[in-house]
Amino acid sequence: MIEYCKSYLHFLAREKNASRNTIASYKLDLQRYLAFLERSNVRNIRAINESHTTKFLSSLRSDGLSPRSVTRALSAVKGFHKFLVGDGVTKKNPTEAVDAPKLPRSLPDVLSQHEIEAILNQPSSSTKDKKNLWLRDKAVLETMYASGLRVSEVIGLKQSNVFAAEMLLRVFGKGSKERIVPIGGSALRWIERYKKECRALLARRGKSEDALFLNARGTPMTRMAIWNIVQTYTKKAGIT
Predict the structure, then answer these.
(1) Residue 127 has what pLDDT?
(2) Is the dihedral of CA 195, 198, 135, 224 positive or negative?
(3) Model confidence over 200-218: pLDDT tens digits?
(4) Which of 60, 117, 131, 207 would give a disulfide with 65, using CB separation of 3.0 to 4.6 Å?
(5) Is the CB of residue 147 less than 8 Å from the CB of residue 187?
(6) Paired residues of 27 in beta bridges
(7) Lowest-pLDDT range, 70-84, 131-145, 172-186?
């Protein structure tokens, strides 16, 4: 069964272009699933039935997992059995009739326009910084606000992905799916100023490539770097 799981995870990475986070999560869920089957003395993949999968989900609830985590685990297990059927390993999918638990609906917390403006106004030229990193931070915040990009999409932006005249960004999201996103004039003006007064100082041949946003070493930024920028200026704005 372990080998089948490895094949499935390989399939997700190569054929489905699943993200690393998705693969890591599914791997954990499938490890739990196989451990449960072993405790249930099920050692043949073809012997698994609907009762086993429902009892597995019940065991996750008993272990204190949230409905969202149980739903993700079911998604991993469903995908695994669908893969086995498609690969001809088994003929029946024991998860077809198993429903996911209902997730509680909750409204997300959102920032007011005043709070957003307070954050955007924090990066300032008064900061003593020879490399003008405040300009990069300002451009990052303006871009995120204007476009609604995911953090991974922000760090993946290339200079060639910015079409200023059309006020558009070319973005590659989950699974390398491409889409075109509109962006406002304010963000574009800060991006242009950042490129002239900051990026030019940071860029290094062979290291920065075409990445739009660079760190102090001239290499592409990381998710944690973006997180630190957001947290730093949110704190300075007095928003908790």
Answers:
(1) 66
(2) positive
(3) 999 876 688 899 999 999 9
(4) 60
(5) yes
(6) none
(7) 172-186
